[in-house]
Amino acid sequence: MPTRVNVRGLGLASAILAGAIAWPIAPAQAADLMPIKAPPAVAPVYAVDGINAKFDAFGGSVANRPVEGVRGAITAPLSGPYGFQIDLGAGSLDDRAFGNIAGHLFWRDPSRALLGLYVSHTHWDQLGGVHVSQVAGEGELYFGRITLQGVAGVEFGNSVASSTTTTTTIPPGIGVPGVTTTSVFTQGFDVRTRFFDQVNLKYYVTDDWNAYVGHRYQGGLNALALGTEVAIPVTRGIMASGFLEARVGEQDFHGIWGGVRFYFGNDKPLIGRHRSQDPDTYDSLFSLLNNQTQSAGSTSTTIPALPVGPPLCGGIPC
Prior knowledge:
mainly beta; Porin; twelve-stranded antiparallel β-barrel; three-stranded antiparallel sheet; disordered N terminus
C-alpha cells in the first residue's frame, strides 16, 4: 500500500525544530544590534582654575631686626593639571633694602595633592650685598580640612664681611713701659651650601580660617613656626585676609610679623583658593640672617719705658 505522509504534522514539526535552533541565537543577534553605551565621562583635572593674583603688606621683627615689606604673586594655568606661579617681594630689613623673586612650576589635583619645583633668589643690601638662592621640591597633600605642605631642597649664596679697627695707647713713663693695643672686629655673612626646608601642617577651622604649626631649617638652624590666616570676601573676585606668624628656634632664629593680604580671582572660600589657585609663598630672610658671622681679635705692642736719669737734689742732678 502506498505510504501516506502527514504534511500538516511534518510542517508543524519543522516549525518547532527551527524555533528550537533559532531561540539561543536570536538573543545574541539582538544584543549585537543594541547600541553600546559609552563609559561615563571623566571630568578633566585643572591645576589652576584661571589666572589669579595676591598681594600683601607685612611688618614685624626677625632676629631682633625690624622688617617691613610687600609681596605679590601671579598664578596661571598651563595644560590641564599643570600650572605656574611667580612671586615678587621687596622691603626693608634692619633699614637695608631687600628684594626677592621666586617661581613655582607644578602638577596639581585640587582634590588630592600638588607636586612641583620651586626656585628662589633673595638679595639684601647689607655689607655691599649678600644673597641666597634656593632650589627645592614643593609638595602639598590634602586630607579634608588638613593640608600638609612645604618645600625642601638646597640653598646657597655668597660671603661678605666688614672689619672695624680701633687703636688705644698707654704712654710709657719713667721706668714704666707703655703699650699700644690694636683691636679688630669683623662681622659678615657666609651663606653656605646646605639643605633647607619649610614645612607646615595646616588645619582649616572654617572654610575661611586656618591655623598651622611648622618646622623651619634655614641657615643651618631649626625653628618652630606657628601661624594663622583669617579671610573675608570683599567684593566679587576679591577676598581680604589678615595673617600672623611667629617663630622660636636656635640662637637668633626667632621673630613675629603679620599683615594684610588681598586675593584676586574666581570667588571661592580661602581653602578653595589655596587648593585651586595660588600655592603658598615662602620666605628666605632667615637663610641670610642665620649665616651671620663675627669675630674679634687684638694685638699689643710694648713701648719702651723712659730712661731713668741721675738722682735729683732740689730739682737738679746731685
